[in-house]
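pasting for ref
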Amino acid sequence: MSPLHLLSPSSPSSGLPRGPLVERVAGWSAAHRKTAVFGWLLLVIVAVMAGQMLGAKNLQSYDPGQAGRAERVLNQPGVRTPPSESVLIQAHSAGATFATDPQIPQAARQVVTALRHLDSAARDIRSPLARDGESLVSADGRSAMVTFTLAGNPTQAVTAAQRAVAAIQARYPHLTVAEAGDTSLSQAVNASVSRDFRHAEVTSVPITLVLLLAVFGALIAAGIPLLLAGTAVASAISLLAIPSRWLPVSSTTSSVVLLVGMAVGVDYSLFYLRREREERAAGRSVREALRIASATSGRAIVVSGLTVMISLAGLFLSGIDVFAGLAIGTILVVGAGAEPGQQGGQHGH
């Protein structure tokens, strides 16, 4: 008799209905531990390799409704306007003005000169020193502005401009010389999100491992939920390369996937392990404890995972492209985390 028959409340030969699907899946996984574990790891490797080969695309996101339609029209090649940037030159002292403090016009002149030497990366440079530059000086005279448009690759152009502006700022510590614009703002936001994501990667795993060690008191038992949650997150983030072909998937999506994936993977594993340990403490055998845990905690994990995925699908109704990308990412990681969560309980005892 196979282990699957032993784990089911009844067998087909008895004429009674077989056990629920979650019990049969748990029984098969317990009877084929190596196949289940290495099969899951193979799926993770395939997902990661597929994501690396495809590569994520950076699609433009638009607002819903008439605003989004206007954004799409303005973003067409024939209508699109070049991105513009501004450099603020402001005195720290309240009494210093553009007319009385020679450092302000000197800094403005150096900004213009630096932008002109950026290998055609900056065009249409407007300076407060020009004849029509009165509008680029504030009413109180403390602030002046140099405006320009980016040429060529916007990312490379804004990076070169920021370096030039930073060098001028270092020469004038008593002034504020800073660049701002849509491109530089987007670049700063992406850099901040990437730093936060790396920080979360570095801190979440050790903290989670320490907490699990305190709960289980054994490294292997603590490492199983963490390993399964980590593989679920890695596979989900890699698979985001597929929906990024038609939905905007930003770096924010990866951060949310990491947070949700770690929480779901560890939580589901602990839920299963706790139930199984309770049954073992009550004197039941390993197989009987596994059968009861799969019929109770396993079923709850499946229902919980499906409920979360359906709830997250409601983000598609918002009509906002960014939320659609978040929905895809979180649905993927919750679906990936539910199955390893059950495997963690089956192999963690």
